[in-house]
Amino acid sequence: MRYPRNIERSIKKSYLENIEMSADAEMDGRILDDALAAMEESKKVSPALAGPNIRRIIMKSPITRIAAAAMIIIGLGMAVYLIDKATTPAWAIDQSIEAMKNYRGIHFSGIISMSWEDFFNDLGVQDLPELPESQGKFEMWAQADDKLSRSSKVKMVLPDNIIISGRKLQSYMQLANGTTYDIQGDHMKIQPWPTSKLLEIMKNVKDTWTELYGMDADTGKERIFIKCSSADMNKSWEFEFDFESKLLVRLRQWNNNNNHEGLPTFDMYKIVYYEQLPDEIFEIDLPDSSKIIAVNTPLYDPNYGMSAEGLTQEEACHIILTEFWQAVSEQDLDKIRKLFPYSANWSDEVLRSNLGCDQGLAKLLELGQIYESKIGPVAPCTVQFKNEKIVIDMIVMFREIDGKSSCIVHSNKGKPRPVE
Amino acid sequence: MLEDKLLIHKFNRGDSDALRRIYEKYRNDLLKVAAALLNDRNGVEDVLHDVFVSFAQGVGDFQLRGNLKGYLSICIANRARDKNRAMQRQRTVGLDNAGPIRSDISGPSHLAVHSELSEQLGDAMAQLPCEQREIIILHLQSKVRFRQIAKSKGVSANTIRSRYRYGLNKLRSILNGELGR
């Protein structure tokens, strides 16, 4: 007998798959009864079954709001019969704006048709490999800001497996080979937000407004079709609403064209609504730092950061993080920018807000055991804010510039968490 | 993944159906993990029971980091380790004789491992240090990422990756040794 070469496969196929397990109803009953009883007991002693704390404290990663609650999917049949508007009840765009205001998370499926070259050149992203410039399917998840005026987070999966993840201060664009562009600034966004702000704007272009009523042949659902354009914005749109739910079910937009000519720049043919999307959806799996290309940020500028000459990584981490939190505590914005170059182009207001300076003074209480990440060592920092202690895992990035070793505070890893 | 988020959200609001759904969704996978890790398979139900009761007690403020299946699988592994240690303490008279424990108790009737290679692999797995066995089972059976295992143990992902590799190498050498006899 020869032992198979691929031991992982053997373990899976010849061992794990052969462990035959089947829970019987009695076992299920015993376990579930006890688990449900334990749950009821816990509910009594912990009546405030609140969700996780929702606060914005630190840096570029806001604390997650885990509330992916209700979800509505509106499918779209392609065959539509137009019907006489006079035989249907009236619909007004305000009804749709009202119906959609509770849904801050949206997942779009669509087809994109635009030149990426110009788009990324504007961002300062140079030397990109060949990107799709014609049609292609894309998926996009977006979370609205509190005012429903624009996106606060966006993630797009584009043709050729290009992934874009954008937040207000920073975006990543990752190519299929893992190369990731780290783009500073407020570039990747949806503005105006398509289900409220955009529709509000639409109310002002009623002179170009065409409204048709129809019925989806597959589902029998009544639909409202709006066609409109804006000469000032040089854009044109087609909207399709579901009459019953009032929700927008399809959106087509022509950029640089107010006549609906040619292919739409975006054709979002499927829209799924969520009250809130989990933060994890917008995360991106970062590669080793060697595959990250910084754009619009002085990550590799020797004038930023701190010399790490003659220091061990651990010593350098301790020094730079102690100085960093001291600067936060003293609201020394220049020093914060120097040690934490991501913030170099942030306004004072944004910097204060994102570092929690407006939450009261921060004080570093303890540095935990350092562990490794792809970007560099990570030190868990226990920080006292006004009324609470939190732990923030801070990444320190080491650089070799002109043969000299230095380090910067790169970012926080994951989300801040309360001290248990 | 989104369904799990939704289930956790409902569970945290005290929805018993959400707990039931989580149990039904993952119990079979978790049973396999427990069976693969326990030296005495009679304890499989106990381990699953303890993990779900403990999970249920976290209602209201349970926060999911990583994926739910991975989290529960790691809980099963932790419980299985405790149970194995407890058994070892019961059996061990002198530490000089301590070593890897091999399962010498046949499992209940619904547990069965087939084929010669399966038995050899099972025996070889039982000879691995428990930390290596855990990582191999968690990674291959529950598809838990090294990063998530590392977080749960407070070590780096590279350490976990190394332990996984050492475990596979040791399995290879155990099996080759046996086959060479």
Task: Please describe what this structure looks like.
The complex is a heterodimer of chains A (420) and B (181). Chain A is an alpha+beta fold and 420 residues long. Chain A has 2 domains: 71-280, Lipoprotein localisation LolA/LolB/LppX (outer membrane lipoprotein receptor (LolB), chain A), CATH 2.50.20; 301-418, Roll (Nuclear Transport Factor 2, Chain: A), CATH 3.10.450. Chain A is 20% helix and 33% strand. Chain A has 8 helices and 20 strands. In chain A, the strands form 2 sheets. In chain A, strands 1, 2, 3, 4, 5, 6, 7, 8, 9, 10, 11, 12, 13 and 14 form a 14-stranded mixed beta sheet that branches. In chain A, strands 15, 16, 17, 18, 19 and 20 form a 6-stranded antiparallel beta sheet that branches. The radius of gyration of chain A is 26 Å and the shape is globular. Mean pLDDT of chain A is 77; it is low at 46-87. Chain B has one domain: RNA polymerase sigma factor, region 2, helix turn helix motif (Rna Polymerase Sigma Factor, Chain: A). Helices cover 70% and strands 0% of the residues of chain B. In chain B, helix 3 (44-57) packs across helix 4 (68-91). Chain B starts with a helix and ends with a helix. Chains A and B meet through helix 1, helix 2 and strand 17 of A and helix 1, helix 2, helix 3, helix 5 and helix 6 of B.
Per-chain topology:
The complex is a heterodimer of chains A (420) and B (181).
Chain A: H1 7-15, H2 25-45, E1 71-74, E2 80-83, H3 93-100, E3 105-113, H4 116-123, E4 135-144, E5 151-158, E6 162-167, E7 170-174, E8 180-184, H5 197-202, E9 210-216, E10 222-230, E11 235-242, E12 248-254, E13 266-274, E14 292-295, E15 306-307, H6 313-329, H7 333-339, H8 348-354, E16 363-367, E17 371-372, E18 377-384, E19 389-401, E20 404-418
Parallel strand pairs in A: 8-14
Antiparallel strand pairs in A: 1-13, 2-9, 3-4, 3-13, 4-5, 5-6, 6-7, 7-8, 9-10, 10-11, 11-12, 12-13, 15-20, 16-18, 17-18, 18-19, 19-20
Chain B: H1 2-12, H2 16-37, H3 44-57, H4 68-91, H5 116-127, H6 130-141, H7 146-153, H8 157-180
